[in-house]
Structures are given as structure tokens and as C-alpha cells.
Design goal:
With about 325 residues, the protein is an alpha+beta fold. The protein has 13 helices and seven strands. Helix content is about 60%, strand content about 10%. Strands 1, 3, 4, 6 and 7 form a five-stranded mixed beta sheet that branches.
């Protein structure tokens, strides 16, 4: 028992000495950087990092290593060391950079703002969603009439963007909405939060109240798609055709045949002859089947089918 006590007692002064030596080296290195004795500061920072007993000590050392690199004209190495410091500790709380090297202090501030995530209470101006897509409502949920509140939390970066990995959906009426709402936020543009006029990363809470849209007239959607094709905008026509054929809109077999014919026109406008021919062939096939069953088509659809049939024969 006596030997164990002596052994532990011998370790305590060594640890204290290790901490003290690291702090001393860092203080001397700071003084040498301020006095432009950069070679000496290099040696002292190298030893201070080797002797650093705690993560915070290593973080401080990397900050001053960044200042040294900046003074040597190595801005990329300065940023790299600042990032290493911030990776070890999000806010090292280093003071005195301005008085030693105002330029490196500005670079460190940029890196700090680019990595630290601020909460609402810290901000002068919160982030705000400026633009982005609407929620892509899953057809099955629309059919079931799923509605309710979605609450999510995410990180908006200094450019006003959101990473999908940062989106955390806290409340949703159905789990099938998690992916669509995450994708919606990732495709959105925000005005970033600001502190003292500078953009910062921030945590943003977002609340959506959702309900399925009312059924739309599928014929009107297909008519609009046809107009888009005529205007040379086939891509937006495909979106309208997909919406027209959504089960919630109750398209009849005749309307579906109409959509297939217009889809063929859209593919033709995109110069995809194979897909155009396949879509038109499918639409005309359904048209003939319905005609044989005695379905009375609207005059505009009869005219379109006849026109496409004659065109297909010539080609």
C-alpha cells in the first residue's frame, strides 16, 4: 500500500509540470510572433503541441500556428490550422489576435463563422426562406387525405443553403413525408442569418401545415401541357401530364389516352423519335379500344387522333 501511494504522488507533479510547460511555450510563441521572431515561434509551437495535455491546449496551439502561417504569407495553411483548431473545439475563445495580426484575426473570424452554428438568441437577423419548390405530396397520402403539421429543424449555412444531412424532422403526420420535406428544404434558398452584418450558420426551426390539394381537372392540365409543347417547352409539359394522370384527379380512360398522345408530341418536340412513336402508338391503341366499345370522344380529341394517325402512317 505504501509503494502505491508513493508512485501516484510522483505522477502528480509531472502532470502539472507538463501543463505548465505547454502554457509557457505558447505564451513565448505568441510574444515571438508579435515580435516577428517567426523561426523561434515555429519551434515553440511545435513543442507546445507535442506537450499539450488537453484538447483545449491543442486547439489554442493550432490557432497560433495559423497566425504564424499567416504572418509567413501562407494563407491556405493558416486556414487549415484554424480549421484544425475549430474541429477540436468549436469556439476556443482565443483573445489578442487583433493586436498581434489583424489580418489573421479576420481570417480566423471567417472560419469561425463558417463552422460554428448559432442559435436564435445569438443572432441579430435570423435566416429566412426566400425561394424553393413546393412540397411534393406523395400520391398515396393525397388519396388518404393525410393532413397535419410538420415541424423540422435544420442548419442554414452562410450561403443560405441547407444540407439534407442537417434536416431533422421532429413531427410529421406520416413518415412518408420525411423524404419529400427534406428534399424540399435542401432545394430551397435562404437568406442566411447575420451577426454584426456578417452571415453565419444557424439552427432554423420550420413549421409547415399541410393538407392535400383539391382534385384538378385533368383535361385542363393536358390542354395546358399541349400548349407548352407548342410553345417549345416540352419539359414542363411532362410535369403537367404527370399531374393530370395522378389518381386523385380521376382521369377517365379516354382522358388517359389523350394524355398519352400529348406525351408522344412532347417526346417528338424533344427529338426522341423512339419514345414519341411508342407513346403515340400506345395512345392510339387505347383510343381504338375505347372507340370499339362505343365511347364518344370529344371533337378535338378525334381530330388530334386522326392527325397523329396520318402522321404516323407517313413516317
Amino acid at each position: 500500500m505504501f509503494l502505491r501511494f508513493v508512485f501516484l504522488g510522483a505522477l502528480v507533479p509531472c502532470t502539472v509540470m507538463g501543463q505548465s510547460r505547454s502554457a509557457q511555450l505558447l505564451a513565448v510563441a505568441r510574444a515571438h510572433i508579435a515580435g516577428q521572431q517567426l523561426d523561434s515561434a515555429d519551434d515553440e509551437l511545435t513543442e507546445a503541441l507535442e506537450r499539450a495535455p488537453y484538447i483545449m491546449d491543442s486547439s489554442w496551439t493550432y490557432v497560433w500556428r495559423g497566425v504564424l502561417e499567416y504572418q509567413l504569407g501562407h494563407q491556405q495553411l493558416a486556414r487549415l490550422n484554424f480549421r484544425r483548431a475549430l474541429a477540436l473545439y468549436p469556439d476556443p475563445g482565443v483573445r489578442g489576435l487583433d493586436s498581434v495580426s489583424p489580418g489573421s484575426a479576420a481570417v480566423f473570424d471567417q472560419e469561425l463563422r463558417g463552422t460554428r452554428v448559432y442559435r436564435a438568441a445569438d443572432l441579430d437577423l435570423p435566416a429566412r426562406r426566400m425561394s424553393g419548390p413546393t412540397l411534393s405530396y406523395p400520391p398515396e397520402l393525397r388519396r388518404r387525405g393525410v393532413r397535419g403539421d410538420i415541424v423540422l429543424r435544420m442548419i442554414v449555412d452562410t450561403l443560405g443553403r441547407v444540407s439534407e444531412n442537417s434536416v431533422d424532422v421532429l413531427m410529421t403526420p406520416d413518415s412518408a413525408l420525411i423524404m419529400p420535406v427534406t428534399q424540399m428544404m435542401a432545394a430551397s434558398q435562404f437568406r442566411p442569418a447575420r451577426i454584426a452584418g456578417k452571415p453565419v450558420r444557424s439552427i432554423v426551426a420550420f413549421h409547415l401545415k399541410i393538407s392535400p390539394t383539391s382534385p384538378r381537372n385533368p383535361v385542363q392540365l393536358i390542354n395546358l401541357a399541349r400548349a407548352r409543347v407548342a410553345a417549345g417547352r416540352p419539359d414542363s409539359a411532362f410535369t403537367l401530364l404527370e399531374a393530370a394522370l395522378d389518381a386523385v384527379n380521376g382521369a377517365t380512360p379516354a382522358v388517359r389516352a389523350y394524355a398519352e398522345l400529348v406525351q408522344g408530341m412532347a417526346w417528338k418536340a424533344k427529338h426522341d423519335t423512339a419514345r414519341a412513336a411508342a407513346a403515340i402508338r400506345l395512345g392510339l391503341g387505347h383510343y381504338r379500344e375505347l372507340q370499339a366499345q362505343g365511347v364518344d370522344f370529344a371533337p378535338f380529341l378525334r381530330s388530334l387522333a386522326d392527325s397523329l394517325r396520318l402522321t404516323a402512317r407517313r413516317e
